[in-house]
Each structure stands twice: as C-alpha cells, then as structure tokens.
From TrEMBL, chains A, B:
Keyword vocabulary terms for this entry: DNA-binding, Transcription, Transcription regulation
Protein's organism: Motilimonas cestriensis
CDD domains in alphabetical order: HTH_MerR-like_sg6 (cd04781)
Ranges of residues in domain HTH merR-type: 1-68
SMART domains in the cross-refs: HTH_MERR
Name of protein: Helix-turn-helix domain-containing protein
Length: 143, 143
DNA sequence: GTACCACCTCAAGTTGACTTGAGGTCAAGG
DNA sequence: CCTTGACCTCAAGTCAACTTGAGGTGGTAC
C-alpha cells in the first residue's frame, strides 16, 4: 500500500502518517522509488494509536505502550499501570456521562443545586477537591 | 477566597485560573483592591471543568456545556448529545483497558497475533478501519 | 507610614500534535 | 522519450491550552 491508500483507508492524513513515522510510531516496510510502502497491518496499528489518543495518552506514552519497534511492548508492569490509569479515567467519565444525562432531563434551577447531579459530580471528582487538589484528574494531560 | 487559596484547594495554578476567567469559564465575584475574590463553589466548577477535560472536551465545548454565565447550560439536546459522545468514548476506553490488561499477561509473541487482543481492539475500533476511516475516534480532538 | 510580597496586567514564550508550502523527484501513461 | 502528478523533504506555520516574565499596585504586618 502506498501512503495515499493508507490515508484513505485509515482516515489519517498522509502528512500525519509521515509525522508518525518520524516519531517512530509507525514504519514503512520500504520504498518504491522514493515512495513509502506500508504493510496492511499498519491499519491496526493506527487504530491502536487512535485508541490511545482517545484515552488521553500522549503520542510518547503510546509509543511506550505499543513499542517504538514493530510490535507492542513487553513491559507488563507499564501496561498494567496504564490499564489502571485508564480504569480510573473510565470511572470518572461514566460519572460525567450520567451527570450529563441527568442534567439533560433534570428540572432543578441550577444543576449545582440538584442533589443527584452533585452526587455524580462528587463521585467523579472524588478526592479532587480540598485535599490533594484536582491534580489526579489532570496531571496525565499536563505532563 | 483569594486566588492563592483556590489554587491550593483545587490544585489549579493561579495563572490557569486567570486564563479560565479570561475565557469566561469561571468568574470571580469581585475584587478586594485589585485582587480577585472567588466564592467557594468555584471549586465544584473547577472539578466539572477538569472532568470535562478528562473526557476529552475542549475548553470551548466545556464552556458550552457548563454555560459561560453562572450555572450549567439549558440546552438539553446538547447535553444529551455530549453524553452520547462520551458514552461511545467510554466503550472504546473499556475495550482498550481490557486490551491492555490482557496484553499485560498474554504470552503471544506479538499482541497483534493474539486473537483475544485483536478482538478487543476490533471492538474498540469497530467501524474505524476500511470504510469510514478512523475519523469517528479522533475528530472530536481535531476539531 | 512604609516596606513587602502576593497579586495584578499584558505580551510573549512553550509544548504537543499536526498542517502547509516551496522546491525537488520519479514511475507510469501517452 | 517526455510530461505529469502523486509523493518526497525540510522548514516554518498553526492551534489549544497554558506558563513565564517584566513592570506595576496595594492590603497587611511591623
């Protein structure tokens, strides 16, 4: 496959593919003239990268997880750690989703005054306010 | 509360608080001299913002949801839409979490060759490859 | 009453993740 | 053969979300 086909089938622009290759996130198997040639499995790798991004991981973190070389990482501890990180994110997002869903139908004057909304918010942000800061929620993105 | 206390209790740097105020995401109730004064409920609002960010929403989107004015938005349709968006993100993250968890213990030579891993990945990226592109996964962030 | 220091403003810098543009190259079709 | 267009490189630009810095201000403790 040439870069245009990968772009078409993955939805990832060619410029981004070149950028990812430069970063070591993906690699082409060779060149035909000066054109890059990719294997079909590049598509799975791209899906994995997109997934990692949706999970809020930086490209560098993703590289760590999927391995800069060919195939996913061997560092089982890192993978487990990232899974746990992701799990706590998921809990927060679930609470937020429920908060949003409720807010969409709740008739309280201000959502902040609705006990249900506040409970969900508290659940999501548990531990964030007062002692410890919101850091837990945001440091992943900040770093 | 002055800005330093808000910063301390929320974990959000003062510079960020000023930045958020400028963007209309938060507001101070007044000034004492030239110093901003915040109400205690600013902490909840900040938790909500942090939550929105963890969910991958941009500050502008968050402003739309929580309302640029004082309290959350009245646009129930928008809230429901965002909740659905969030829900599909959550499904992907769950699949990825499970994929990571499994990868951490799986002994297949390459995770891409492990059927279980591929199934989870496929689940997460369903529809992303081949027809439609990965766009669904990433456009939220790109916008 | 004055010195200090935390807070202020406003402009510019930073980082991550890309995109855009200018100028060059080469495989394929005519 | 030779033109053409898709691909190449490399440098610079962009955007969101902040951070940093220089220079100013004013409650508060001494």
């Amino acid at each position: 496959m040439d870069i245009a086909e990968v772009a078409k089938r993955s939805g990832v622009p060619a410029s981004t593919l070149r950028f990812y290759e430069e970063k070591g996130l993906i690699k082409s198997v060779g060149r035909l003239g000066l054109r890059r040639v990719f294997e079909v499995n590049i598509l799975e790798r791209l899906a994995l990268i997109a997934l990692g991004q949706a999970a809020g991981f930086s490209l560098d973190e993703i590289a760590q997880m999927v391995g800069v070389n060919g195939n996913p990482n061997i560092d089982r501890e890192l993978l487990a750690k990232k899974a746990d990180e992701l799990d706590s994110t998921i809990q927060k997002l679930i609470a937020m989703r429920d908060g949003l869903r409720h807010a969409a139908v709740c008739s309280a004057p201000s959502h902040m005054e609705c006990p249900k909304f506040r409970r969900l918010l508290g659940l999501a942000a548990s531990g964030a306010i007062k002692s410890g800061g919101l850091d837990q929620l945001t440091k992943r993105r900040r770093s």
